[in-house]
Specification:
Blueprint (H helix, E strand, L loop, with lengths): L9 H63 L2 H7 L5 E12 L2 E12 L15 H91 L1
Antiparallel strand pairs: 1-2
Length: 219
């Protein structure tokens, strides 16, 4: 691992040690965040699978019933029966915060003149298959909204997990090893300089002792 290009001074060594400590702490926090995001993501994916299965079942049943209703009813009667909807749909959008990730929350509301009657037509001139198709579509719509919310949440979490994973890898395999290698290099350099200074001091001391001996021998 290539070390950082810095001056091997004690001040730089202290600065790098502080950076290393911060990097290790950040690495731990990011790993914890990544693990927690993964748990949330897996939970949402499981919910998403259940909602998709339910939605596909409802839509398939509605489509089958509608095909049969179209076969047994006149086109004019079918179009007239579905011309004026019985319910109005309202959709509110807000946000929720999951581990610093802003995800959408859809608030689904239905308004109708009569909540007990979901059919926008009289039952005498239509077939039972059309009733089944309208009922299944009515039941599928809230599931579809919930599915859209879960899928968007899963996408945003997956994007954040990937971003956090890259940061964790950058700290673990690049930044922290570089700091450790640089700290090791500076420490070795400082130790080498200190040994050199001690050696020079010892030589100076020996020279001074020898000089004193020579003076004493002259006397």
């Amino acid at each position: 691992m290539a070390r950082l290009n810095v001056n091997p001074t004690r001040m730089e060594l202290n600065r790098l040690k502080k950076r290393l400590k911060t990097a290790r702490r950040g690495h731990k926090l990011l790993k914890d965040k990544r693990d927690e995001l993964m748990k949330k993501f897996i939970t949402i994916v499981k919910e998403n699978i259940k909602l998709r299965e339910e939605m596909e079942l409802r839509v398939t049943d509605a489509h089958s019933s509608f095909v049969i209703a179209r076969a047994v009813m006149h086109t004019e009667n079918l179009e007239e029966a579905l011309m004026f909807p019985k319910k109005q749909i309202g959709l509110g959008v807000s946000e929720n915060n999951i581990m610093s990730v802003r995800v959408p929350v859809f608030d689904f509301e239905e308004t109708a003149e009569n909540d007990t009657n979901i059919y926008p037509y009289g039952l005498n001139s239509t077939s039972g298959e059309l009733d089944g198709a309208v009922y299944n579509l009515t039941q599928a719509f809230p599931v579809l909204i919930a599915l859209a919310e879960k899928e968007k949440t899963a996408q945003l979490l997956a994007r954040e997990i990937e971003k956090t994973r890259r940061r964790v890898n950058a700290l673990e395999y690049i930044m922290i090893p570089q700091l450790e290698e640089t700290i090791k290099y500076i420490t070795m350099k400082l130790d080498e300089n200190e040994r050199g200074n001690i050696t020079r001091l010892m030589k100076v001391k020996d020279m001074m002792i020898e000089e004193q001996r020579q003076k004493h021998s002259e006397y």
